Amino acid sequence: MDTQNQQQxxxxxxxxxxxxxxxxxxxxxxxxxxSSKHKKAIITAVVSVIILLLLLVLLxxxxxxxxxxxxxxxxxxxxxxxxxxxxxxxxxxxDPQVLAIEENVKKLESDLIMTxxxxxxxxxxxxxxxxxx
Amino acid sequence: xxxxxxxxxxxxxxCISAAPALAQEDEEFNYERAYKDYIYNFNLYQNAxxxxxxxxxxxxxxxxxxxxxxxxxxxxTMLQARDQTMITYLTAIxxxxxxxxxxxxxxxxxxxxxxxxxxxxxxxxxxNLTSAATLEDIVEDSNEARDRLGIQKTIAFDAMRDISSSTxxxxxxxxxxxxxxxxxxxxxxxxRQNKDTGVIERWILETDNRVTRSLEKxxxxxxxxxxxxxxxxxxxxxxxxxxxxxxxxxSIQYLKEANSYLxxxxxxxxxxx
Lengths: 133, 273
Hints:
The complex is a heterodimer. Chain A has a domain at about 35-65.
């Protein structure tokens, strides 16, 4: 590694010797002489940054995918019980009169649901009464 | 001798085969059929109106005798189609009234009589259109029908109000009947003293309150209906919906709430203390 870094300016100058003008600025370029300790630290830092970036990209991709899916709200639901089920029945639970009343309430409920008060189909037709010549 | 016998036999066969067909025809003429007739005639009117507009424009541009005659005929056809549309429209309303349960005979017969009177007027008017010889005559005939429109629209709105009112009234009566049945049962339970009826009795009062609110909304609808005619000579359907129909819908909503209370009351009766 050391030798490579030291040789780099030489390589550049030797390659560009025929066209000196554009690379004149590199001629005077002096790279700092780094110790092996510093170089290791820099390499470790660069590698860690790359790994961190990769991790961030991965996390973003995962979170983005989750967000794009429709969110389903999970609400706490009560324990399912059959309709009309009574845990603690009274002595009137099977009373014929009470059952008849219950039946009437159910029938009325379905009648109310079926009720159609909208009479828009019977609205007067739009006819032209403004005849003139 | 043979000929009369054969003739009588054929007559009997014809009568037997025709009777069910006629009966079937009578049975099938319900609101659904009447409404289809009305829509069919309305479409015919729309076609006739397009032809009338074209003929009218041609006459106004050309002012020739031919174009005048074409305009007269197109107007006549359109006015006849317009009368027929109103006839079938009023007939559909009549059939709707016939199929609406809970309407009192006085209200229904009153509306029938008014509808029949208007249908008869429209039929005569339609016949008279054939005698119109000039464009002035036909415009005058059209104006006669225009002047009658207010009466016909009022019949339609009256019918709609009565149909909605009777529908709500039937459900309110059913709710009141169930409340009465529950009251009898609760009174019996209270007498036996084996279940606390305090909560149930309070809930019955709440249910009663909802029924009263429903009745109040019906009265508001009736009052709004009167106001509707104070504001405009001939109200529009939108005016009717905003002021009257909306009150009936609120009334039904109160009855739905009452019904959900009744369900809770029954559940409470069936549950031990």
